[in-house]
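Note to self: keep these together.
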Amino acid sequence: MQKKIIAGLVVLILAVSLLAGFMFMEPPPEEPLIMQNIVIQPDGTIYPSNAPIQHEGNLYTFTSNIYGTIRIQKSNIILNGAGYTLSGPYNGSQVDVWVVGDGPAQSPDLVAEYIIGIDIGAKNVEGIIIENVNVKNFSIGLYMWTTNNTVTGNRVSESIVGIMLSGSNNTVTNNYISNNKQGLFFGFNGEETIPDDIIVHHNAFDYNIFQINGCLCEEYPEDEEIHTWDDGKEGNYWSDYTGTDANTDGIGDTPYIIDALNQDRYPLMQNPFK
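Structure:
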């Protein structure tokens, strides 16, 4: 009888030891994330075909979060993120390349070596609308080398450059641009012309190291362009605005100065995204 009791105790101890071993076993290492390099091709098809983007007519809609990049080679389309996130590998520890290419001069070839979230850099591709995407952790979050594009309703964060503009007649509205090295960066395009007729309003520029940068600076006064920074009533929110609002109408009493020729006449006192 005593032998049976001892044998039972031995079995119980072994069972408990095995169970404890399973409980404290280290989990297997996570598989490394593999970046997807997605292309919306000139004929409208998506490469690769299994990319998590639904295509109906000129509307391309995310169906999940994406770790990777998107290059657009077709004009007159809408890319809708449906609130999903497009993320890249930038974590703030890489070399700080805030001027991309040859100074402020930009071309698709010059920026090719940098990781761009959404790339509208194909020649003669225009009329693109980018909306409702969370873009983060890139060298350049969104790059617009071409003309007549609209970026609206997005969140762009934690990148070296949030949005880079090298093309003219582009519109940037209702975006939350935060915690980038450069919020909005203006660069020359391949023809060495500064973008003009840029409309920027109802965005929140929140704690970017430089809210606006690029060729909107005093080094290029002979090439300055005057852009539109408000809709005639309201402008943008700037986290470093130091003005007051004496009549509490939600609009700063003094303009937010961008450079000698550019100013937001009606800066918002409250961040509309918080």
